[in-house]
Amino acid sequence: MTCAIIRRNYSANINYRMKKTENQMLVIFGASGDLTARKLIPGLFNLYLAKQLPPNFVVLGASRSDLTDEAFRDRVVYKSPYLKEKLQKLGESEVKGFADKLFYMDLGKDYDTDYAPLRKRVESLKADHDTSGNIMYYLSTPPTLYETIAQNLSEAGMNTQNNGWKRLIVEKPFGYSLETARQLNKGLHKYFTEPQIYRIDHYLGKETVQNLLVTRFSNSIFEPLWNRNYIDHVEITNAESVGVEKRGGYYDKSGALRDMFQNHLLQIVSLVVMEPPIGDQPEEIRNEKVKALKSLRIMKDEQTLFDNTIRAQYVASEINGEKMNGYREEEGVDPNSTTETYAAIKFYADNWRWHGVPFYVRTAKRMPTKVTEVVIHFKAPHHQIFKDSGMQSKDNKLIIRIQPDEGILIKFGVKVPGQGFKVERANLDFYYSSLAETYVMEAYERLLLDAMQGDATLYARADEVEAAWEFVDPILDYWKNGKDVRMYGYAAGVWGPENADNLMNGFGFWRNPGENLADDPGYCVIC
Predict the structure, then answer these.
(1) 371-378 and 231-239 strand pairing
(2) Which residues are catalytic?
(3) Residue 267 and residue 274: Cα distance in Å, rounded?
(4) Which DSSP helix (H) or strand (E) runs through 150?
(5) Omega before 173 cis (within 30°)?
(6) DSSP string, 24-55
(7) CA-to-CA distance for 500 and 511, rounded, in angstroms?
(8) Alpha helices in 318-461 (DSSP H)
(9) Helix crossing, 266-273 with 282-295: angle to 10°?
(10) What pLDDT score was predicted for residue 410?
(11) 209-223 pLDDT per residue, tens
């Protein structure tokens, strides 16, 4: 009975928060690329099936491929491997109703061209489908093209908001360093204002990431404890079981710190560190996230960087009888590469709430399992009357699992039945999968809908991006130019280099999570 009430209330809450989505057009630059077929169109299709798209809505794909409207629909809908399973369960009219909203325009050989023909096609679609002057431009292209596309849209008069709003969505990576991020922001601001720009980070579209805010600020059992008086340290792990696969060429110029830490993980850090916002309005939340990122203590001297950062690469190994290549053996990777596939950073936030509380954040490829989670380690009671029961090595933990097996787990001490006061650790858990009657949106689905409605809460602001780079830049510079920088190796399929626990400095060792939230292994078995 209790579970049913929770489910109904949860669903009702979602409906209560629903906003109106105005008629509009979505123009996707780079529409013939993988992201459009793999994420954007499936996300839009789900919104269409859930009746979340506005009555008058069309998508215009634009790229350098020679495609007709029909060929584009075949590629991203009718013959898409990403929709194949779903299409088999739907009626022809449902599929056609969505596919008929998709159109395509060939831009020619270069994105740097006259957009007058593009404007003409947009105006034609607007007249035929009554989409109004509201247009969202999604740049699913390399970042080097962002300013070029923005400039050409401006020169064609397609950025003005005299007749309906115009919004620009850009994908990561947003810059390669602090300087390039600043240049990119400056370049876009020539043609679009900051409120028009939406910098997407799909990690923020995950329900469990957003639930960090709710867990913190709507529960009196957590909010008063969320500070240095009660929290011992904070641990964040992002692990991927795969290697770089076919992204070797890109990844070798990026690395774990740029690819995951600077954007996804620092976004999560900002939600853990931030102060309570005045309200739930997008700018109020983003203001506090920027303050949180600016409070991170920037490490500059080499000794501090040496003591508090670890980088490593996976090396060849055998898992379940299958040989795994080392990173330097992957396609597109320099055989002498010093690009990290594992990065672990210890740092502090210089503010009242977190003074003296260490944060441990790691991200890596070729780990034993795919998992992302936040672990809040609480301090032991000041007076431990059960200290001989073994609990001193088993601290209270709040574990927020972002993926997979999404949910929240609390670890606390209970008495073992029998004589004496032997204490063991027990679990109190919640799983999103238990909300059987509630549909949980995919990340891109949620983010696209937010952008359509003008809700920028889950999108990064210019100063937010730059604050993250200000923290990361000195680490990257040290790893590139420092004197005693080391690159460690770890066998593909294990939890990183052996010395990674040394980073903890008396705080124990990393929690090496299993695929299931309630798993708590002290080690993992590869074979």
Answers:
(1) antiparallel
(2) 264
(3) 10
(4) helix 146-155
(5) yes
(6) EEEEEETTTSHHIIIIIHHHHHHHHHTT-S-S
(7) 12
(8) 443-452
(9) 100
(10) 84
(11) 888 888 888 889 888
CA 368 – CA 413 distance, rounded (Å): 28
Spatial separation of the C-alpha atoms in residues 246 and 259, rounded to whole Å: 15
Pair of tokens at residue 275: 């102060």
- CA angle centred on 105, ends 104 and 108, rounded to 5°: 145
Tokens of 134: 């509201």
Q: Say if residues 188 and 150 touch (Cβ distance below 8 Å).
A: yes
The SS3 of residue 191 is coil
Calculate ∠ Cα 406-408-410, nearest 5°.
Answer: 150
**Are the C-beta atoms of residues 46 and 82 closer than 8 Å to each other?**
no
Give the C-alpha separation, 214 to 234, whole Å: 18
pLDDT tens figures, 219-249: 898 889 999 999 999 999 999 999 888 788 8
Distance CA 503, CA 14 (A): 42
Beta strands 57-63 and 397-403, pairing class: unpaired
Q: Which amino acid is at 46?
A: N
Q: What is the pTM of this model?
A: 0.87
Average pLDDT over residues 399-419: 80
Q: Is the pLDDT of residue 3 over 50?
A: no
Confirm if 18 and 445 have CB atoms less than 8 A apart: no
Q: Which two tokens stand for residue 138?
A: 């999604």
Extract the tokens encoding 104: 């395509």
